[in-house]
């Protein structure tokens, strides 16, 4: 288990929220987050999906999440993103607005989290979380109405578990992943039933 960080994530996010530079890029944020890169970036990109967003926004957040979770799965030391994503501008009013809404919740959750490691926070557990996170990130990319909340919740829990080395948060991530699978199965079952009903109704 890693040693706890001296600076809280909420403090880093508050500092980022004060940066109104319109040329701020995703690469700048990666450098600012430093060793917290994987967990903090996953949280930063997944949390907006917990609130109503314009159509297509989940795809914008989901693409970098796929790269980040895949690297967590293979135990990459540092976050790597394609140049196009590194140079993607996230400055202006968008990032401060998102962080203004996110930081108060992070502060509250941080009070409940503490380093308590088991298999879930081990190196093996983190790789499995990366696999589950990759699955959830791919689901976020899909245009499925009502299917964003559970994978976004799972990713946020995994992120907080990685940052604070908290097994309870990691367990929350696995519950969110299970809920995502259950929702997809239900959508498939109901979708298939509706399809066959309509086909039988339309067919002579």
Defining key terms:
mainly alpha, 204 residues
Main beta-sheet annotation: none
Approximate shape: globular
| SS-based class | mainly alpha
> Hey, roughly how much beta strand do the residues contain?
under 5%
First and last CA, distance: 65 Å
Q: Could you give the order of the helices and strands?
A: HHHHHHHHH
Mean pLDDT: 81
Helix content: 55-70%
Oligomeric state of shown chains: single chain
Radius of gyration over all CA atoms, rounded: 18 Å
Summed up, the domain count is 1
Note the total helix count. 9
Unreliable parts: none
* Number of DSSP strand runs: 0
Description:
The chain has 204 residues and is an all-alpha fold. Helix content is 67%, strand content 0%. It has one domain (9-202). The mean pLDDT is 81.
What can be said about this structure in brief?
Helices cover 67% and strands 0% of the residues. The chain is built from nine helices and no strands.
